[in-house]
Amino acid sequence: MDDRNNLSAPAFDSAMNDDARRLIELTDRLNGARNVIASIITDIESITLHQNPSIEAEWQVTVGSWENRLLEAQIAMRRAKRKCALAQTYINHETVIDDEEIESQLDTEFAEWQDKLASAVSGYIQALNIRANTIKIDQAKSQALKDVFRTLAKRLHPDINAQLDEEARMMFFLAQSAYKQADLEMLESLEVSTRGKEPKLKVPQTLDEAEIELALALAQVNVLEKRKKDLMADRPYCLLALLRDEEWLTGHIGKMKEEIEACEKAEAEYRERYEQRTEQHG
Fold this sequence. Notes:
elongated
């Protein structure tokens, strides 16, 4: 039984006032949590649509070309070494070295490595293509884009508004595309077009409802914060700190250059050995 039934009128009114204040407090916290959800979602979209492609492109321009050249040199060196070993096998069996057969076997053995190199070069070209087509924007426009997109996310993002119709979903897809392309005019147009489409968020009427809604919102905040944290810890976002570390960058590229030179020198030596063996046993 509710103890308030046994209260005097003044005491009952006081209890009701306490409940009302508590409900207002919980509702304010709920609204705050919903605003945090919208902010985190905007940050995630910003990282995914803007920052990560830009970071990957910068990495490829600065470091990727050297990484690919090193991989290419390593493959060439290992292939030349393996070619020498296969030639020696022919010599050991006292048979004529068959260069065409050796090359065919090497193609098979190194197919996975060549695929890895092709994939790396493809990623490099794709990143450079993104960089070439990226529109440079100043800080003011960047903030304006983020502000308008945040407004649209609060209205149209499925993590905030689960009751979206097909038209609203298409609007949000267009908003993502506009944000990615830094098209502020399109975003502002979508903001005007979607006014009145704010999600009909449940307004708690009782303390129990408020506590449940707040708990759900805070749980969603935790999930989104983890998603954002994981995104920032993963490539390419995690490369940003390295790109800003000039000392590390210079050292890393210098080390790759040395490794490339060593691979090229070793490859030349293996090729010379192979030529000597073919001259003697070919």
